[in-house]
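Lecture 7 notes: from sequence to structure.
We start with the chain below.
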Amino acid sequence: MHIGRVAQIWRYPVKSMAGERLTSTPVDVAGLPGDRAWAVRDEERGGIRGAKKLPELMRCAARYLEEPRAERAGDAEMRLADGTVVRTDDPEAAAHLSRVLGTRVTLWPLQPADRLEHFRRGAPTHADLEQEMRSIFALEPNEPLPDLSGLPPELLEYESPPGTYFDAFPLLLLTATSLDALARLAPESRIDVRRFRPNFVLDLPDGPTGFPEAAWAGRRIRLGSMTAEVTIPCMRCVMTTLPVDELPKDPRIMRTMVRETKQCLGAYARVVEPGVVRLGDAAELL
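Predicted structure tokens for the same chain:
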């Protein structure tokens, strides 16, 4: 069933940094080549970290100097929150990042899945598990904790599925319909796609209103020549409330999502048939 078209394509060279828009991309079982191919490791508390723990990452941005290949992402140029521009292959990159992030970090290209210690979770910020969860998900004391049962079970032990720097799954889909619906529900907030970090934004001009992708779990979707299986709605965390470029910090966004969408926006997916996706390609729900 034809539902719309591909309106935006995004790739994020460094985990939790702002990404780059594309006009086309191959997609395989590992996702978009070069997507989250670099990440920082917290050398104080351990673990690969994103902006859930190092919020200044959201005020940094990265872009590739050459188009990455599936087998090797290559080097990226990073614009840090203080305006410093540094390449991932610069020997001083980790020192620059440590200064901007306020803690000692190292910068890593994606490592093989069998390097399990590299992906193992670091020490929590809070000794109390509930307090730790509420900090990560930006929840008030009276708001329910999210249901994490649909996430890959290895995330109990590792920061990301070993062999990846993804939070959970290789693809994140988001509809323009959902962005518009959230903007109507949160009129005082600046609802911008950069806060939500999708890979594909889909325009559904004649589709349902509200948050349509929330009902796609278990369905297959074809974008261009690529087919993916939608897994679970994307549970949102503190990152959606953090400053990005000119966008201010805004905890009201999370209050709205908790109230209206069970804290979800967009949907995760895994690739079942690799292919190529281009701007304007048809989106078909199978």
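Points to note: The CA atoms of residues 94 and 151 lie 31 Å apart. The radius of gyration is 18 Å.
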